[in-house]
Amino acid sequence: EIVLTQSPDFQSVTPKEKVTITCRASRTVGSSLHWYQQKPDQSPKLLIKYASQSVSGVPSRFSGSGSGTDFTLTINNLEAEDAAVYYCHQSSGLPFTFGPGTKVEIK
Amino acid sequence: QVQLVESGGGVVQPGRSLTLSCAASGFTFSSYAIHWVRQAPGKGLEWVAIIYRDGSERYYGDSVKGRFTISRDNSRDTLYLQMNSLIAEDTAVYYCAREGDTNGWNWFDPWGQGTLVTVSS
């Protein structure tokens, strides 16, 4: 099983700041790494696919990078509505796995 | 619009069975593999199972293998999850999620709103 770890677990930031979340895989997943946002009492929403590909309807302040085992989700000019838990997910191999999540709180 | 709607959740005693449904609309259901993903209260996401678009292949997470069965009825645009021998650790919100593309393993999009299963005596 491919284990995904995320850092940090929690981040408290002020609006307009930049947020960087990292996801590390226990073995290479190529670019088969995706990012989701989950707000309280909502289902997860796709943010970034295949490490760095943008998703229609997602604000351009969200971007992704990385390949192999190390990946980054960046949120530029953080807005209040970005308060959520962010998960990475690998589709390289079974079983599909998710990172433990990073909670972003707005100060 | 593309939509998935889960139903069938509820409170069930340990050892009993429950079947969840996921109704799809807004896309050609038979062209996509579909997943079940669950989330225990206050916890992260756990992948449960996938069924290929024609039902020819199914795979499960280790924690549910041998107890849960994923199936689909393409004539009804509906996905199912039969859950047997339920234990407290199966308590979670269960989401169905569509494969992001018609081929291979990809991202999950969209997700349903989820249905809560509580296993308790």
Commentary on this structure:
The complex is a heterodimer of chains A (107) and B (121). Chain A has strands at residues 4-7, 10-13, 19-25, 33-38, 45-49, 53-54, 62-67, 70-75, 84-90, 97-98, 102-106. Chain A is globular, with a radius of gyration of 13 Å. By secondary structure, chain A is mainly beta. The termini of chain A are far apart. Chain B is mostly beta strands and 121 residues long. Chain B has no helices and eleven strands. Chain B has strands at 3-7, 10-12, 18-25, 34-39, 45-51, 58-60, 68-73, 78-83, 92-99, 108-111, 115-119. In chain B, strands 2, 4, 5, 6, 9, 10 and 11 form a seven-stranded mixed β-sheet that branches. In chain B, a hairpin with a 6-residue loop joins strand 5 (45-51) and strand 6 (58-60). Chain B is globular. The model of chain B has no long low-confidence stretch (mean pLDDT 97). The A-B interface holds A 1, 32, 34, 36, 38, 43-46, 49-50, 55, 87, 89, 91-92, 94-101 and B 35, 44-47, 50, 59, 61-62, 95, 97, 100, 105-114.
Q: What's the end-to-end separation of chain A, in Å?
A: 37 Å
Overall SS class of chain A:
mainly beta
The major beta sheet of chain A can be summarized as:
7 strands, mixed
Uncertain parts of chain B: none
Query: What are the segments of chain A in which pLDDT stays under 50 over at least 5 consecutive residues?
Result: none
Number of strands of chain B: 11
Helix content of chain B: under 10%
Mean of all residue-level pLDDT scores of chain B: 97
Order of helices and strands of chain A: EEEEEEEEEEE
Rg calculated over all Cα atoms of chain B: 13 Å
> Quaternary arrangement of the chains shown?
heterodimer
What does the overall shape of chain B look like? globular
Number of helices of chain B: 0
Task: Estimate the strand proportion of chain A.
Answer: over 45%
N-to-C order of helices and strands of chain B: EEEEEEEEEEE
Give the class of chain B from helix and strand content and strand pairing: mainly beta
Biggest pleated-sheet summary of chain B: 7 strands, mixed
The pair of chains with the biggest contact is: A-B, 24 and 22 residues
